[in-house]
Amino acid sequence: MPKSVRWFALIVIVLAVFGPMIPQLMWSFATRWFFPNLLPPQWSLESWEYIITPSSRVAEGFMNSLKIAIIVSLLSILVGLPASRALALHNFKGKAVIEWLLMVPIIVPGIVSTMGIHLVFIRLGLTNTFLGVSLVHLIPCIPYMVLVMSSVFANYGTELEDTARTLGANPLQVFWHVTLPGILPGLMVATMFTFLISWGQYVTTLLIGGGTIITLPMVLFPFLQGINFSAAAAISLVFVAPAILVLVLTSRQLGEESSVMGGFGRL
Amino acid sequence: MRWLRLVEKLRVPMMLFPSIAILVVLFGGGLLVGVGQSFGYFPVIGLDDFTFAYYGDILTDRGFFASLWLTFRIALISTFLSSVLAVACALVLRDKFRGSRFMTFVFQIAIPIPHLVAAAGIVLLVGQSGMLSRLMVALGLTQTPGDFPPIVYDRAGIAIILTFLWKEVPFIGIVVLAVLQGIGPQYEEIAQTLGANGWQRFRYVLLPLIMPGLLSTSIIVFAFVFANYEIPFLLGVKYPQTLPVMAFENYKDPDLALRPQAMAVSVVLAVIAIVLLVAYKQLAKYAIKT
Amino acid sequence: MTVVTLNNLTRRFDNVIAVNNLNLEVNDGELVAFLGPSGCGKTTTLRMITGLLLPSDGDVLFDGVSILTVPTEKRGAVMVFQKHLLFPTMSVAQNVGFGLKMQGLPQKEINMRVSEMLELIRLPGFETRRPHELSGGQQQRIALARALIVRPKVLLLDEPLANLDANLRLEMRELIRSLQHELEITSIFVTHDQEEAVMLADRIALMFDGELQQFAEPNAFYERPSTAQVANFFRNANLLKGKRVGNQVETALGTLTIDTDRVVQPDGEVLLTVRPEEINLIPDSAENIIYGEVLTQVYMGTYSQMQLEVDGNQWLVHGPANFDAQVGNKIPLQLPEPRIWLLPLERKLK
Does residue C350 register a pLDDT over 50? Predict the structure, then answer.
């Protein structure tokens, strides 16, 4: 590829990536920034001061989002890991059907089932509860966990585990000392996906949480409809911070030649 | 011994059971209740007769078809452009050059950012009083916000598409990039010594190799965009609305009688999505073979 | 029908010199082996001939014309790699016909020539198979067919037999040899296996550390190696320091007579060498005898191999299968006058 073409492409990528982020950063520190000023006439911490007040409910939303995302990720690992392993390393009758079944929530629009679940959860008393919200977040998370991890397991194989078994390790020791370290990079990426999917949910939380379970998207949404750009920008940044942190932790696995993202090719 | 055999036999079902159970009960159960309601089974408000009436209502409504067309167009354009741009970006980033690692990280930044935040960023950038508009004024090209083309809250849904592009290009791109790096340069080198020029190497060697990954991710993206509520709700016009917006607005309405109709809209939405995706996959399979 | 000339060909990676000032000419229709240990620059040279890699210095000529500015796809220098052989997304016919399709030939002609080619490599009727359904040997043959079908000016093979098991190797070797002779395509192949090079090539270019050591017919490497290192690579480490004076070499173990018609090394400090299988353990005269101490003896079936110490150097000697050398004994070694070869003395050796 000619150097000039690459340079042009890289500049476009940088502009496209940061283009929508820089105005948000500026708005969060701006006040009375009217058209057509290119820069805010004065910088201020007004919106940051606002969002740390309890009445803004940003802190509450943050903690709830975090709590739910962690619960959902742990549940995804718990139920997703064994399923991924079964799909990757075992052949059994009806495997194709099971594989397909596990991917359905990614393909079939979730809006029907969410509305249906809403009715069921009302009956079961699961609406307006953490458990209910977590369960409904779990639906789109499981497929991603399985998609990534079955590819990772298939790639990792069983030779090392078998070797460890013959050397006298019990199944638990094998998992802890051999399997887990081997699949950890992939597991981190899969967990990043589940965390972020839960972290970004709006409709499902709105329906099942019924306004009682306040997560960050719930707090942010009204500001996006309104005209308070400064507050919206500040909350957005709070909303983005943990997500970026998660990316920093996993970007190496994401960007490198590996089986981790290769799983998406087998859908 | 018999005990051990039983354990052996049950192992795979046990491993699969929890996730299958959760999905079947929650997703399947929800689907069933939703579909039931769309056919008029809604005991809470005293409805329990099976009827096609709600489907009839929406399928005779011109607004529904305007919505369907808008939804389809946004999803199609977003998916197509994201795929093309993602492949282009992956081709740029696959080479090793100084700072390629860092650029790959920059490219990934949008992946974890929630769609809501992306939408806010797009509004602040390309809205009529956004950064670009202000930049135009500073450059003396425009005077008022009205001089800037209405990209946000427009009937064509440009801001909606931009938001999805910003989010989905890195997602598809990173999968394509992983595939490209797994392939290595050798297939292209063979093709080159056999006389294939740059375009031929891409068309006949690289594209078939990245197609499975591209296909899967673009299916995920299409399905996601097609059913997304928040972005078109925030950045779209009041009429026509996309189907998910239409369905959810009806569902949220305090008038519970609107709910079966909301369900019917979302069932149609889901069916269309599935039909389109199956057709797309078959078409792509056929295209790869020839 | 192409003569390939490499003029002062050099390639540096950062500060490492991969190929240094390489000069050689491959004749029309000749099969030449680039031989050497891994990392010696042979594959780098191949890639420069294809144009996949640009030389830092020097020139590549086809029939006397520099082709450095000709892009790879127009050079007609086709490469067969050792792995990633076939395009996994295409059928056998699509793989073999790939080069013709790139030229824009009509599909009908492509199909015809693909069928012909598959006959030639003895895999007729394989058109619709997919690469993953083929054995390693079949894949290799299809890769060869894919290269040959475009009637390349130069055929380049990078370790073509490396991934095959012993039986297949033999079969492939025959096939490459016969196809190459039949089609008379100028060919260069890279290998680290000296046996393979000897059996297959018309001439061998031996390279160490990016430098050409010797470029000659296979037997020359056994009979007339250019340096001790070359001799060593061809499994001859029998060295003895000496000083040549006319038709005699004075060594610590006595004075030996040499054949002045054969030896090219001039008078002065030299290294004397004789191949293991050419040393007489049962002398037929008192001429040219030195003594070595037996360290080990191994029975090899058709012969017996001894390791000896000769003036501080380790020698290998092949004797009759039933030869009984007592370990620790000093035994006579007769070095036949016409078999002695002299090498330049290198600083590294004691």
Answer: no
Interface contact C73-B192, CB threshold 8 A: yes
Q: Which residues of B touch C146 (CB under 8 A)?
A: 194
Chain B positions in Cβ-Cβ contact with residue C76 (cut-off 8 Å): 195
Residue C84 has pLDDT above 70, yes or no: no
Q: How many CB pairs under 8 A join B and C?
A: 66
User: Distance between CA C20 and CA C209 in Å, rounded?
Assistant: 8
Mutation site, A6, A18, A264, interface B, largest B CB count within 10 A: A264
Contacts of A38 in chain B (CB under 8 A): 131, 134-135, 137-138
- Inform me whether the pLDDT recorded for B78 exceeds 50: yes
Mean pLDDT, residues C296-323 taken together:
89
B196 chain-C contacts, CB cut-off 8 A: 73, 98-99, 102
**Cβ of C117: how many Cβ atoms within 10 Å?**
21
Do B124 and A17 count as a contact with CB atoms less than 8 A apart?
no
Say if residue C348's pLDDT is above 60. Answer: no
- pLDDT tens by residue, C42-56: 989 999 999 888 999
Q: Can you tell me the distance from the alpha carbon of C91 to that of C131, in angstroms, rounded to the nearest whole number?
A: 7
- Find the mean pLDDT for residues C61-74: 90
Beta strands in chain B (DSSP E): 41-42, 47-48
CA distance B190 to B1: 55
Burial status of residue C301 (CB atoms within 10 A of its CB: 0-12, 13-18, 19 or more): exposed
Average pLDDT over residues B182-202: 90
Cis preceding linkage at C152, omega within 30: no
pLDDT of residue A256: 62
Separation between Cα atoms, residue A61 and residue A202, nearest integer Å: 12
Please state, in angstroms and as integers, the Cα–Cα distance from residue B257 to each residue in A45, A187, B3, B54, B197, following that order.
47, 45, 56, 11, 63
Do the Cβ atoms of B55 and B272 come closer than 8 Å? no
Q: Do C99 and B187 touch (CB under 8 A)?
A: no
Q: What is the DSSP code (8-state) at residue C131?
A: G
Please provide the average confidence, as pLDDT, over all residues in chain C: 89
> Nearest-CA neighbor of C36 among C158, C221, C207, C198?
C207
What's the pLDDT band for C214 if we cut at 50, 70, 90? very high
Q: Give domain limits for chain B.
A: 17-51, 53-115+156-289
Residue C341, SS3 per DSSP = strand
CB burial of residue C36 (10 Å; 0-12, 13-18, 19+): buried
In B, minimum Cα distance to C86 occurs at B187
- Distance between CA atoms of residues C229 and C211, nearest Å: 13
Judged by CB atoms closer than 8 Å, whether chains meet at B108 and A83 is answered as no
- Residue C162 host element (H or E): none
Please give the CATH superfamily to which domain B53-115+156-289 belongs: MetI-like (1.10.3720.10)
| Range of lowest pLDDT (A169-173, A226-230, C294-298) | A226-230
Chain B neighbors of A254, CB-CB under 8 A: 108, 111, 174, 178
Nearest CA in chain B to C85: B187
By the 8 A CB rule, do C97 and C111 touch? yes
- Judged by a CB distance cut-off of 8 A, whether residue C156 touches chain B is yes
Find the mean pLDDT for residues B218-231.
90
Round the average pLDDT of chain A to a whole number and report it. 87
Using a threshold of 3 CB pairs under 8 A, tell whether chains C and A touch: no
Q: Residue B82: which pLDDT band, with cuts at 50, 70 and 90?
A: very high
Interface check C150 vs B, CB under 8 A: yes
Q: What percentage of chain C exceeds 90 in pLDDT?
A: 43
Inspect the interface and report whether the beta carbons of A239 and B114 lie closer than 8 Å.
yes
Strands C186-191 and C240-245: unpaired
Structural domains present in chain A: 69-213 (1.10.3720.10)
